[in-house]
Design a protein that fits this description.
It is built from 13 helices and 25 strands. It is α/β, with parallel strands linked by helices and 446 residues long.
Length: 446
């Protein structure tokens, strides 16, 4: 699958006056954005950043992030996007662990980032703000020091993401840099918004005929939900599966998914997928085990060779997800190994229960966890965020259990259903079951 002539650099070269970013007054054009990216790239080189170095951001949803991202991508830098919701200590850990030589932030987070930058030892000249902030250099002034022509050596950088983690502190994932210019790489890191909760009259208000391709990832969409999205948007919803460690390894077009509902895709060119048991033996089609992939550029967990080695089986690596292949090599995900619930000796996959509950109109979000049980080892608990027009309580809990009856075998039914105002998700949109489980057990202990 390829996309031709629609990349940032192609548009900036061939259609420089085309609007690229909506900003107050008038939009920024592709040509203007390209020039600013070049200025920042050259200025970062003036600060001493070289290919392989790390550049961090702590930004809200604002256009300057795109400028920093594109500059890092053509300068051979590792961009480390840090969530603005973290504490100074958490940010400081990531800045120090990633070896960031500079950080770009904004005034709203200036005080928190200052403490983090102090902790990480980032020098004053490496502290940049996109708007006026005491103790920071101006990004506009920094860019003014760089020329508008592309830097002499253009090399594809990478995003160094920090894993959500299941134990201990998060670990940064560094993929090997490719010695190629950025326009040769197709960036698939786009996500779809689940918008079916919008009222019918709101959804009907918009003309979606211009949509051609929408990519989604992070977690599989329940089959019924995806059917509804395809009915609404048309055959434009492409799914891919990968991880922070691997990047995309399988892809499913809308037509392929409709022929095999529930699949997350088939291996892209050059990638092999295997399903292995805990001892490393390959499992036959239909049997669930750990998903392993090979063929993508290598990676390492930063400063953690033991964790890197534990994820490998020869040339194959696993992010810890469970799934199975069918006879034709199509991949179906189950869950993460660390989220597996074992109750009475039976393996139970939380995602399966969550998918069933999310089909109920009164459920806005749900997390299913396993909690210690003296008789069963673990029991299934569902923590439900009710929809805006739903009333939490015993009646809704009973209705949800009745809803599960035709969809799940009895042993998969939640032993308890409790209600929450909101559930924690990571910046990438993944449900953080670890945090849900820890918070729940802490509540029980208290």
């Amino acid at each position: 699958m390829s996309v031709e002539g629609v990349g940032f650099y192609e548009i900036a070269q061939n259609h420089p006056d085309r609007p690229a970013l909506p900003t107050p007054g008038r939009p920024v054009t592709y040509g203007e954005l390209h020039a600013e990216v070049n200025r920042l790239s050259n200025a970062l080189g003036g600060l001493g950043l070289r290919p392989g170095d790390s550049l961090a951001t702590v930004l809200g949803n604002r256009p300057e992030f795109l400028t920093v991202l594109l500059a890092a991508f053509q300068s051979g830098l590792y961009l480390v996007p840090v969530s603005r919701h973290l504490t100074a200590s958490e940010i400081g850990y990531i800045l120090a662990d990633s070896g960031a030589k500079a950080v770009v932030t904004e005034s709203a987070f200036g005080d928190v980032v200052k403490g983090a930058a102090d902790e990480a030892g980032i020098p004053a000249e490496g502290r940049v703000s996109v708007d006026p902030a005491e103790g920071y250099g101006s990004m506009a002034e920094l860019c003014a020091k760089g020329g508008a022509d592309p830097p002499g050596k253009r090399q594809m950088g990478s995003v160094m993401l920090y894993t959500s983690g299941t134990t201990g502190r998060p670990k940064g994932v560094r993929r090997s840099l490719l010695d190629i210019p950025p326009e040769m790489v197709l960036d698939l890191m786009r996500q779809t918004l689940s918008m079916l909760a919008l009222p019918d009259e709101v959804r009907a208000r918009y003309d979606l005929s211009s949509l051609r391709q929408v990519y989604h990832s992070a977690a599989p969409i329940p089959v019924e939900t995806k059917h509804r999205m395809l009915d609404w948007w048309g055959p434009v919803l492409y799914e891919y599966y990968g991880s922070t460690e691997s990047g995309p390894v399988v892809v499913a077009t809308p037509e392929q998914w409709l022929a095999r509902p529930g699949t997350v895709g088939r291996a892209v060119d050059g990638v092999q997928i295997k399903i292995l048991d805990p001892e490393g033996a390959e499992l036959p089609p239909g049997e669930t085990g750990l998903i392993y992939a090979s063929g993508q550029p290598g990676f390492e967990y930063h400063d953690d060779p033991e964790k890197t080695a534990s994820a490998m089986r020869g040339d194959f690596y696993t992010p810890g997800d469970l799934g199975h292949l069918d006879e034709d090599g199509w991949l179906y995900m189950s869950d993460r190994r660390t989220d597996l619930i074992i109750s009475g000796g039976v393996n139970i996959y939380p995602a399966e229960i969550e998918n069933a509950l999310l089909q109920h109109p009164a459920v806005a979000d749900v997390a299913v966890i396993g909690v210690p049980d003296d008789d069963w080892g673990q029991s299934v608990v569902a923590l439900v965020e009710p929809a805006a027009d739903a009333a939490a309580g015993d009646a809704l809990a009973a209705g949800l259990l009745a809803h599960c009856e035709p969809r799940l075998s009895k042993l998969k039914h939640p032993r308890r259903i409790e209600f929450r105002e909101s559930l924690p998700r990571t910046p990438s949109g993944k449900l953080s079951r670890r945090r849900v489980r820890e918070d729940y057990l802490e509540e029980r202990a208290g």
